[in-house]
Each structure stands twice: as C-alpha cells, then as structure tokens.
Specification:
With 295 residues, this protein is of the alpha/beta class. The chain has one domain: Aldolase class I (TIM Barrel, Alpha-Beta Barrel). Helices cover 47% and strands 13% of the residues. The protein has an eight-stranded parallel barrel with strand order 1-2-3-4-5-6-7-8, surrounded by five helices. The chain is globular, with a radius of gyration of 18 Å.
Length: 295
C-alpha cells in the first residue's frame, strides 16, 4: 500500500525568471508534512511536468525525496509517451528513493490495448517500487478499459490507479472487478467522496495544495464511518473545487496560492495567466470559504 487518504498533486514553484524555486518547494514540503497530507505527488500534471526538462524533473524528484526524508511518501510522476523514456525516469526515481511512481497513459501515439498493456508491463518490470496508473483521457486522448486495468492489476507492483476520467459509472465498474489490494484514487476533487463510497482509498488532490488538513480529514472521517461529517467537507469545498478547474490546471491553483501569499510564481508557457473574470470568480470562492471557516 502506498498511501490511504489525501495525496497532494504538488505544484512546482517558480522564481520570477521561471526557474524552479527550491527554497519555496522545501517550504511546501514541510507545510504538507505538518498539515496531515498523506503523500506528496511530484512532477504530475499539477506540477507542470510537461514544461519541465528531463534534468529539471530529476532534480525536483531527488530534492523532494531528500527533503521529505521519509516523513511522508513521495510519489514521482515518471510517465511518458515514450516507453524507453518512462523506464529511464522510473529507474532514476527508484534510485533516489521515491516511494512510488505515478505513470500516465502514453499520449498522442494512440496505442492499442495490447500496446498499452505492454507499455506498463515493461515499466513495471524495470523497477521494484509500486506504480499507480494515471488515467486522464481529457488530456491524453487515451482511456484505459476496465478490462485492461484488471489485467494490469495482476502485475505485482502495479498497485493502483488515479482515475480522472470523470465517469463515475466506469469507476464503479473498475472498483467492482479489481482485487482488494489494488487501490483506486480519485483524480478529481469533486468526486472524492463518491469514489470513496465505491471503495476508493483516497484522492490525488489539487485543492489539497491550499487546504490539506481538511481534505485529509474528509477522507479519514469517511473511513471512520463519520459519513455525514465527510459529506459536509466535500460540499463545503465544492464551489472552489470547481473553480480550480475554470481554466486548465494548474493555472487556477497557482493563482489561488499566490492570492493566499504562498508566492509560488507564474506558470510556464504555453500556459498563461487567468482571464480577469475567471480570476474574480476564483477569489470570490476563496473568500467565501474563509468566511465560513470563521463561523
């Protein structure tokens, strides 16, 4: 088992010149250790992995593992549409001490089910650490069939999936066919509680960048059968969860963090600043939450 509860899909902080801000990254790691976050996921979609060079990814993974110092599991995003590159990055992450890997489906190539299976099998056979599949068809154009997920779940170190398809019926089917030791994680904050109700083990969360304790608490209240309390947390944050995707992730979460004085810098091109009207909506939903938290 890699983790149960709330794993943060951590942003990558940048300096003014858009180089990586390692001082701020260390502060964020410590913030999550202190805030009950159950795992740190580094170099994922929210971490702008698609705009980081291979050298930068390796430095961020190694830095995060070192600073986390086994106080919290670190799961490294090592996926690629190039199987050889994914294997190389996965081996590196294992070498520097990552606790697990998050491996996105190979995008653009539009491989067959057999190609998809062999891609993951080759990666899994190259390392010993646990692997979480990452299904996000809105970005990759690839949607892993439940039957393929079941087949992959039989490979020893493929231990879970981050499901960001948004299709709750499909996720129910996955939960119904995979073995008990294969973990399903919500990849969408707004579906966390429904997926937990289907047997999911947690969430890889964007909103946990700013409200880590509450997202951890929501998961564990559900696990501890405090379902009504968990439901209240899910619904309390629902508006902000939605507004964090009013534009492409991670643009809104970085804007939210800067608004809350985390000082994490801008996004790299081709991502760009939020439209003024969307930023206004985002800030309004944050202010509403802080007002609720005062009550």
């Amino acid at each position: 088992m890699l983790f149960k509860g709330s794993g943060v899909a951590l942003i990558t902080p940048f300096n003014e010149d858009l180089t990586i801000n390692y001082e701020r990254l260390e502060e964020l790691i410590n913030f999550h250790i202190e805030s009950k976050t159950d795992a740190i996921i580094i170099c994922g979609t929210t971490g702008e992995s698609s705009t980081l060079s291979e050298i930068e990814k390796k430095k961020v993974i190694e830095f995060t593992v070192k600073k986390a110092n086994k106080k919290i599991p670190v799961i490294a995003g090592t996926g690629s549409n190039n199987t050889t590159s994914a294997i190389e990055m996965s081996k590196f992450a294992q070498k520097v001490g990552a606790d697990g890997l998050l491996v996105v489906t190979p995008y653009y190539n539009k491989c067959t089910d057999d190609g998809l299976y062999m891609h993951y099998k080759e990666i899994a056979n190259s390392v010993d650490v646990p692997i979480i599949l990452y299904n996000v068809p809105s970005r990759t154009g690839v949607n892993i069939k439940p039957e393929t997920i079941l087949k992959l779940s039989k490979i020893n170190n493929i231990c879970g999936i981050k499901e960001a398809s948004g299709d709750i019926s499909r996720i129910a089917k996955i939960c119904s066919i995979v073995p008990d030791n294969f973990f399903v994680y919500s990849g969408n904050d707004d579906q966390t509680l429904p997926i937990l109700a289907l047997g999911g083990k947690g969430v890889i969360s964007v909103i946990a960048n700013i409200f880590p304790s509450d997202i951890h608490d929501m998961c564990y209240k559900y696990f501890n059968l405090e379902v009504e309390e968990a439901r209240k947390i899910q619904l309390k944050y629902l508006e902000l969860m939605n507004n964090l995707f009013i534009e492409v992730n991670p643009v809104p979460i970085k804007e939210a963090m800067n608004y809350l004085d985390f000082d994490v810098g801008k996004v790299r091109l081709p991502l760009s600043n939020m439209k003024a009207e969307n930023l206004k909506l985002l800030k309004k939903s944050i202010l509403k939450l802080y007002e609720k938290n005062k009550d």
